[in-house]
Amino acid sequence: MRADGTEPGRPVPGGPHPGNVLRDCARDVLEIAEGIRAVSERTATTLSAPDLTAATRRHPRTGLAGCWALLRALTAKPGLGGSAGTAPRGGLTRALGLAGRARGGANLAALVALTSLRLRIAAVLADHPELARTPGMRLLTRALTADRDEDAVRALRVLLRDRTAQRALSGLAPLISELLSVCALLDGRSESGGTLEGGAEAVDLTDQRRRIIATEGSLLGFLRNIEALSTDGRILVQNVRGPDGVVRYVVQAPGTAPGRPRHDAPQDLMGAWRDLRATDSPYTRSLVRALAAHGIPRGAELALIGHSEGGNAVLNLAQDEDFCRTYRVTHAIAVGSPAGDRKPADPRTWIATVTNQYDLVAAPDGHRTEPAAPADPADTTRYHVEYAGPTREFPLCHRLREYIEHLRTLLPVARADLDEALAPYRGPVVRTQAYRLKDHAHPPAGHPFLTLATAPVRTTVGPVDVPVRYYDSAAAHLCFPVDPAAARSLLPDAHWLTPSRLGPRALAVLSLHEHRCTTIGPYTEIALSVLVDDLWRPRPYDAVTDLLRRVDLRRTGRYVLSLAVTTEAARVVAQEVWGQPVLRMRAEADLTGREIRARSEDLGLVVEGRLGPGVRCPDADRALYGRRGTGTVRTLVRAHGRLRLHPGAGVRVRLDTAAAEPLAGQLRRLGIDAARPLFVLACPQFMAHRGGGAELAR
Amino acid sequence: MVTESARASAAHADELLAHIGRLRADADLMDGYARRLRATVTTLDGCPTAPEWGRPALERQAAACASAAVRLRTAAEALLAHARVDRPTRGAMSGPSS
Asked: Which region ranges are annotated with the description Disordered (chain A) (predicted)?
């Protein structure tokens, strides 16, 4: 203990918050990394300068000595360790750049940037330890915990280029800014490269959604409209007749939803990143095209309202001089968006922001106890609301539903102020039109495997598009030989439902799924199923011969005995669309590496172990059976990934509960409550789609 | 022609001197970065949630910055020697002060 009564390593009482200390350090280190990169660029420029080359030709002895010293300064380790930037690439510097990249490109700027990112991650986890379990954070920490810094740089570079991984990373809102900077330092190029394109087409809303859309102009009504659009790449434009009889236009733009695909809408991760920094992005371009398609006359008055990235986009539009010359933007309101100091192109535009200080998207630095002071207190065209919400849990506090609830209950004064400001837009809605935004520059997510025709199916949580598509999932199917009589006893009491036999045994499968990005949101799934014969004409070797058939021609399938999922949407879909016996439980799974682990406290189930060597095998397409009423429901699952067959010796199932139901009792009756599987079919990353359930008269 | 050639030669020499000045300034910057990284180590020492790897990684990188500063100064000196040889008639070429 020190003389002042504090212990080393512990914060001084009343001292700065540890998260803030780490965040400040990360920011400082990132600034240093950018400075080192600039030094590296200048040194590379000097090395390839034509005047130096010319002088070297005149006096080779001293010239070559100078060039050698420069080359050493640029590439030696410890030191700058290689060219880091985008300096003009002559023959020598180009060769150096290529050589550096081939070696992993771990120059000093990249290594320092890596340190900054690690510090930033530590800061985020100090405030939000729950983020450690998110798929994106797991991917990131796995990349950053390589033994050597050079390996970590290489792994991070691979991760940042992986389009599939970007979906998981998009959930890491508090780190996006750092990831952007580190990405630029690792790649040596600006993140805004490439052609920016955008498009929009008018689309109809389903009856169910149309009923939710507000018919009177009000702040909460507009925000509820945005929520109803459910971040699937659509925006809404409403014509509102104001109290003075003038028709004005309200543009409503939703934001991102981590764990859901973006289809072909430009609200993807890179789009969101660009939106944070650039006034010109595919999203904003698409918005402009949607407004043009809506037929809004020049000079008409517009209010722009957005949430999250949608808020960013509308603030960007308010800064766009061309746009503001075409239309009169009277209001721009951003909810849950990182606002910054935005100066509108039209000084008359009223800018408002609403920010929960625990929302890591809107306030990535968090812990701001005082609202940001306006640049000019007398400025009546700015209105900033910053408040501390009742929960710190992220991403819950970023959800628009939470903001709406807070405006309704916690912030009545702010809501009244905003409604008063929107008075010209408070009147009957005379036209509502949705537009789907498109990014022509990129194929839709999951193309071509997941480019499917879909149809909405009515459920108690609203319409669900079927087939349900899984863009980024991991799975491990633990296969156990079990007693056929025990398996039969768990199936419904019908003589035509019999377990398939593989020799003297039946086969039970404990399936673990980690769905990181799906059309019904991310969730974890644990399912127990038994392989069953053809429901009408069972044959002895169907289970084996079916392995050679396409999934849609198979007669056998897996009857789902028990299913646990972690979200309400997944529960409703499994029960109402696929007829499976499902419960909503807490569970988590990490199935992306050699060490697999799944755990559900509610089920008292732990599966963990190390997968041994495996061999590639065909995709795990399957037919699943469930029950609805007196009928059987057959669902086809098509998967596309790199499935591998592993021996099951390294994996163990453990039950930490004495309860009989759910799942635990079935596992005990099958005798697999503490067993090792015969083999494991595992796939750390795959895409899949599940069609609607077809009812069979059995 | 002779005058033109002399002018071009003088311009090349000035460019070289500018490069030398930039290298020296960058060396100072790298020394500054090394100091800031070491200051970050000190700051992190008082932070209970600072990761364990922080101190060694930052000290390694601070040492690399200092080493880079030395190499940049060495390169500046080598280029200065070259500039003197390339244009000996210009007089005392001490180069721009850093």
From this structure: 1-21
